Automatic annotation (TrEMBL):
This is S-methyl-5'-thioadenosine phosphorylase. Pathway: Amino-acid biosynthesis; L-methionine biosynthesis via salvage pathway; S-methyl-5-thio-alpha-D-ribose 1-phosphate from S-methyl-5'-thioadenosine (phosphorylase route): step 1/1. GO terms for biological process: L-methionine salvage from methylthioadenosine; purine ribonucleoside salvage. Substrate binds at residues 186, 210-212. It comes from Thermosporothrix hazakensis. Keywords: Glycosyltransferase, Purine salvage, Transferase. It catalyses: S-methyl-5'-thioadenosine + phosphate = 5-(methylsulfanyl)-alpha-D-ribose 1-phosphate + adenine. PANTHER family: S-METHYL-5'-THIOADENOSINE PHOSPHORYLASE (PTHR42679).
Length: 290
């Protein structure tokens, strides 16, 4: 099986990686079912990357249907250590305009029907999630994005993750604004939580496509609006991915974050109380601690 240290999860509008050479497609099965699609592995600027479209090619899966556990497990099993998510988002503030990019630093969970953890059936794990995005990978993405002189990039912001698939009401959108949220989408959770449980560095390039439905002078969000703005945004996201490939250290020991040891103090269950078959099932994630 080919391996890659960097994984890219493509969101709306990003279903394949441009400028990828030596491309191989791999179909992976996991204890949590099949991922959203086959994973493409190849080289971007000489660096190995794995690419997975979260909604599947053809955009077949709505946010609630995305097999997030299978997606993160599959990337981990390919040796991925860094996951870069590319996502379309609505803006909840005037100065984050459509076609701008945001590297968010916080998350607020408004999902209702998602599975939030890998661990169940006799293994209880409480990982720290105060900083949901990897600060080290976010900084590298920000530096790469800032090299695009024709694009406005915002450092930081709170991404509120709603259930969907319908967009928000005006009452919801205005409430999120009052609560201090900056951007809105439907997919960063549980992806970020599962990446943390898999001890992966995880960060997002959020592509602003609309002002949701709160803005008095702008039309409320529609799929047509999202798709039009995404065409430009996704090109810029691809440029960032090519650039960041050069900056990510091959050896994660050089990273200044704690993502690679996120479970070191998180396992609550007595080692002697964990059934053998559960240890076996989760060995990809916790073998080094058991
Ligand atoms: C097509 S607009 C709504 C859709 O776009 C975002 O997806 P992604 O984060 O995968 O780019 C949003 O979360 C919704 O799923
Ligand atoms: N306004 C919005 N709400 C939720 N998800 C989105 N994705 C893009 N725009 C969005």
């Amino acid at each position: 099986m080919p391996q890659a240290t960097i994984g890219v999860i493509g969101g709306s509008g990003l279903y394949r990686m441009e400028h990828m050479t030596e491309v191989e497609e791999v179909k992976i099965s996991t204890p949590f079912g099949d991922p959203s699609d086959v994973i493409t592995i190849g080289k971007v600027n000489g660096v190995s990357m794995a690419f997975l479209p979260r909604h599947g090619r053809g955009h077949r899966l709505n946010p609630t249907e995305i097999p997030v556990r299978a997606n993160i497990w599959a990337l981990k099993s390919l040796g991925v250590e860094y996951v870069i998510s590319v996502s379309a988002v609505g803006s909840l503030r005037e100065d984050y305009a459509p076609r701008d990019l945001v590297i968010p630093d916080q998350l607020f969970d408004r999902t209702k029907s998602r599975v939030n953890s890998f661990f169940e059936g006799g293994l209880v794990v409480h990982a720290t999630f105060a900083e949901p995005f990897c600060p080290h990978l976010s900084k590298l993405l920000l530096e790469s994005a800032r090299e695009l002189k024709d694009v406005t990039v915002h450092a930081g912001g709170t991404y509120v993750c709603m259930e969907g698939p319908l967009f928000s009401t005006k009452a919801e959108s205005n409430t999120y604004r009052k609560l201090g949220m900056d951007i809105i989408g439907m997919t960063a959770l549980p992806e970020a939580k599962l990446a943390r449980e898999a001890e992966l560095c995880y960060a997002t390039v959020a592509c602003v496509t609309d002002y949701d439905c709160w803005h008095e002078a702008e039309e409320s969000v529609t799929v047509e609006m999202v798709v039009q703005n995404l065409a430009a945004n996704v090109k810029n996201a691809q440029r960032i991915l090519q650039n960041v490939a050069q900056r990510i250290p091959a050896d994660r020991a050089q990273a200044t974050c704690g993502c690679s040891e996120a479970l070191a103090t998180a396992i609550m269950t007595d080692r002697s109380a964990i059934p053998a078959e559960v240890k076996e099932k989760y060995s990809l994630l916790v073998k080094k601690y058991l």
